[in-house]
Amino acid sequence: MPAPKGNFIDLQLVSQALDHIQLGIHMVDIDGRTILYNQQMRVMESMEEIDLLDKRLQDIFKFYPDDNSTLLQVLSSKKPVLNVKQTYFNVHGREITTLNNTYPVWNNGELAGAIEIARDVSSNEQIRIRSGSGNPDLSSFNHWTGSSPLIKEMIFEGKKASRSDSMILLIGEAGSGKERLAQSIHVERGLSPHAFHSIDCRDLTAGLLKELLSEFKTKSAERDAATLFFDHIESLEMSLQKQLTSLLTQWKLDIRSADKPSIYPILTLSTDPIDAIQSELLDKDLYYLMSEVLIFVPSLRERKDDLRELADYFVEDFNLRFQMEIEGVSSEVIKLFTAYDWPGNVRELQHVMEASLFAMGQDRVVGFTHLPHYFRLKFDDPLNTKTSLDSSSFMIREGKPMQTLDAFLREAESYYIQKSLQYHHYNVTKTASALGMSRQNLQYRLKKNNLIRQSKPGSPF
């Protein structure tokens, strides 16, 4: 890698040494122009050295409008920025996600530039294709975290159900882990990991339903037995529910003459079935048909005894994925978690924990100040003995410095979008419509605020 013109030292030997390091290294001068850029960083960002050397970062990479490069942040603050996840785009439009440690570089007491050490975590951020294709990395019953009586009972019922050929109905709130339970039953049945197919009924049309079931029926002899997981049955139009009732009735007749089913249906409801029938959201005949085996998935507020184990799981998982050494969660935070009702269930806890862990810096124990701002607003600081102001003045708290307007607006936006998502059961299309924006605009804001992420295999739901 040739040394850029205008520098007073020859960087040739340093550049060659950095090319052997398996972490991304990017160094800029005080003006934000690249002077060092190693081989691993070129691979991570899909860029060539000629594209960057002696050029300004803003001319090469696109960062979110309100989120500067960590390198530029260090040039501005003259302080290290540690353990920060950053998502941005290269000049070709490719999305990149890295976990960065960034430090100022000094020369004779003067700031000379900044250097960034980055790990590529883009693969951890990619959302899996859920519908119409198998997922080889499924959760089993061994992946469940928690020892509360309700979880033990659910696991017992799930294992018992896996020994039958009946269709199964799972009832539980959004985010409680119904798909994880369906995966566990699939694995317990000994079916191929590639034969689990998840269908979100909120996006299902008559044409897609007919095409999907026709494909499995005509090719059943050519493929392994499969699980068809129908999520959010109550979201289907009534005409489609009646059509599904007819198809499942035929399925029950077919398996009487077969040694083993070629398809195992598992369906879910996110609401009480009787209430759904009375509200005309659920066809009564469909409910009676699919409730041969019924399993309730407990909400997180019903299993708060599991909060410590779940929080420890997320810390352990974070340390493993990002080579960190976080020690755990403070008892004060666990008390706050226990006092909260968790309307988004384990999925919401996962979001809160991940946001907290990315805010750790050099700290090793998750405390109140690491929690997301929108979540902290629900409580008084347990370490602050002063009385907070009236809730109508929630943006200002005694004993705490005021945020900048930009910082407050970012966190208020994140909070409002998250509550809208919960209200619309995480349906992006409906949420975008309610917020008066395009689906693409909402997707951008979801990525920017890190609000929706596909649960990774082995999630502790």
From TrEMBL:
Coiled coil: none
One Pfam family in the UniProt entry: PAS_4
CDD domains cross-referenced by the UniProt entry: AAA
Any one GO biological process: regulation of DNA-templated transcription
Keyword entries, A-Z: ATP-binding, Nucleotide-binding, Transcription, Transcription regulation
Keyword Transcription regulation: yes
InterPro entries reported in the protein's UniProt record: AAA_lid_NorR, Homeodomain-like_sf, HTH_Fis, P-loop_NTPase, PAS-like_dom_sf, PAS_4, Sigma_54_int, Sigma_54_int_dom_CS
GO MF annotation list: ATP binding; sequence-specific DNA binding
Residue intervals of the Sigma-54 factor interaction domain: 144-358
PROSITE patterns for the chain: SIGMA54_INTERACT_3, SIGMA54_INTERACT_4
Name of protein: Sigma-54 factor interaction domain-containing protein
Source organism of the structure: Jeotgalibacillus campisalis
Species classification: Bacteria, Bacillati, Bacillota, Bacilli, Bacillales
